[in-house]
Amino acid sequence: MDDELRTKAVDAFIEATNTADPERRATLLSRALTDDIVFWGPLGRSVGRKAVEDFITEVIQRHPSGSCLMVRTTRVDAPDEWARYGWRYESAAGEPLLSGMDIVHITADGDIDEIVVFAGPLT
Q1: Which of 12, 19, 71, 118 is the most buried if burial means most Cβ atoms within 10 Å?
Q2: For the whole model, what pTM was predicted?
Q3: Main-chain dihedrals φ then ψ at residue 58, nearest 5 degrees
Q4: Which residues form a coiled coil (predicted)?
């Protein structure tokens, strides 16, 4: 599988988390995720692109700190169909609020069909 395909899928997902425009978000998610994606997030397991979109809208976009951004902090490391990347969630002023790493499974077509979110440092 092409590293560029993996990176494009991850970056489209991150861009979707950062856009306030619901139509743009839906378009980006349709480029990055399968319809039946399994999302293991901080609130538990959910299935489907709509569930991921709802998480972005209800949790990320409505953060108490106001307008925030998700930033990829590492390259997308993908030895095969599984990939990982580091990220940081930051305030509009650039202040780090949370960081972590996501593990994603990417299909041969370059779409993410599973995301496992690891937020915060391991202690």
Answers
A1: 12
A2: 0.91
A3: -90, -25
A4: none
Question: Which is it for the CA torsion 5, 8, 43, 27, positive or negative?
Answer: negative
Look-up of token digits 């299909």: 107
What CATH class does 3-119 carry? alpha beta
Residues 6+ apart with CB under 8 A from 83: 6, 10, 76, 77, 103, 104, 105, 106
Q: How many angstroms separate the CA atoms of 85 and 100, rounded?
A: 9
39 — phi, psi (to 5°)? -115, 115
Distance CA 81, CA 45 (A): 21
Q: What is the pLDDT of residues 82-94, one digit of tens each?
A: 999 999 999 888 8
Beta bridge partners of 89: 70, 98
User: Residue 123: what pLDDT?
Assistant: 64
CB contact at 8 A, 37 and 77: no
Domain residue spans of the chain: 3-119
